[in-house]
TrEMBL record:
Protein name in UniProt: Chitinase
Organism in which the protein naturally occurs: hydrothermal vent metagenome
InterPro entries: DUF285, Liste_lipo_26
Annotated GO MF terms: endochitinase activity
Pfam entry (one): DUF285
ATP-binding recorded as keyword: no
Amino acid sequence: MKKNILFFITLLFSLSMFSSSLCACFTVNEGFIFTVDTKKASKKHNNTLEFTIQTSPYALPWDHYNYHIDCNNDGIYEEVNQTKAYTCKYKNAGVYSIRIGGSYPAFLFKDASKYLTGSVKNPPEYKDSSKLISIDHWGTQKWSTMEYGFANCSNLVGMANDLPNLSQVYTMQSLFSGATQFNAPLNDWNMSTVTNISTMFEKASSFNQVLNAWDVSSVTDMSGLFREAKLFNRPLNLWDVRKVKTMFGLFAYAETFNQDINDWNTSAVTKMGALFRDATEFNQPLNRWDVSSVTDMFIMFHSATHFNQALNHWDISSVTNMRAMFKNTKMFNQSLGEWKLFPSQDMIDFIEGSNISSKNYSSTLKGWATNSHVLPKNVSFKVDAFYTKETQEYRDILTSAPNHWTIQDKGIEIK
C-alpha cells in the first residue's frame, strides 16, 4: 500500500498586536499569488516549504499581520485571520499556486534569511526558497519592506505583470541576492521611497534588465548592489545618486559591466572600497566624479584588468585608505602626480601589478614629492616600471627621512 507523502508549505507569520475579521472570499485583484514547485528541492527536503512573512529583525513598528491563506488558489481560503504559522499540506509533490490575502506587509524565506542575517554560521541547503518559481500577482497590499524577500530563490524566473505597491518600502537589501535564474523586467517599479538597495542583485548571475528609469534619489546605500551579477551590463547614467553615502563593492566581480557613469553626482559618497574590484571589463571615464568626501578607496580597482582612465582631477584629501587601490589593474597606465597626498593615508601595495609606463611613473613620483606639504610615512609598494634619471631626487624625497617610503621598482631608465 502506498503511503501518502505529505508536502508541507508552512507560512510563518508573527504575532500581531491587531486583529480583524475578514471574509473568506476575495475579488480577482485581491491577494498576493505565487507558484511553488515542491520537486525543486532535494528528495530529502521536498516534503516541506516554509514561507515567512517577516517581522523581526526587519518589521517596522506599525507592521501587523492578519492574513488568509488559499493553499491551492481555488477560491477557498483554508484559514482566515491568521497571526501565527499555518501549514498547507499536499498529498503529492508538484506545482501549486498559493494565494495570500489580508494583511501581509513583509515576507522572506526562513531558511535563506537565517544564513543571510548571520543567525547561523554555515549556509543551509535552501530547501524552501529553491521551490519558488514565479510571482504571479502582487495585489494591492502595501509592502513595508522587501529586505531578503526572494534571497536565494534560485529557481525564480517569473514575475507578475502588475506592480507591487512600494510606497512604504525603505529597504530592498538582498531582495534578489542569490536568485541565480532571475531575469525579469523591473524598470517600472516605484523606487522613490527606497533608501537601501545594498546587495539587491548580489549573485543574481543571470540578471541583465534595464533599470535606468528607477528613481533612486532617496537611496543612501548601494553597497554590493551588483556584486557578482556577472551578466549585468545596462546603462545607469540617468540615476540620481546624490544622496548615496556608500558604494562599497557596488560593481565588485560584475565581470561584464562597462557603462558610462561619469556624470554621477558622488559628492556625498564616503565609501568606495572595492567598488570595481574584479570588474574585469570596466573601462569608462570617472574623472568628473567628486570624491572629496570619500575616506575609503581600499582595493577600489583591484584586478579591474581593463581599467585605464585618467583620474588626475580627483580630490583625495579625505581618503585615509588607498591600500592596494590599483593592485593587479594590469592595463592601468596613468599619471597620478596631481594628487596631493596627506599623512593619514595608507598606500600599502597601492599600484603593484599595474602597467604604468616610465613616463607616468616618473610624473607621479615628482608630483607626489612636490605637491604634498606633509607626506604619509612608511608607504610600501612594488611597481613594475623604470623612472627617469631626472626623477631620482624626487624619489629620494619619498624614500628618505622623515618619509621612509619603501619602493621596489626597476630603477633608473637607461636610454
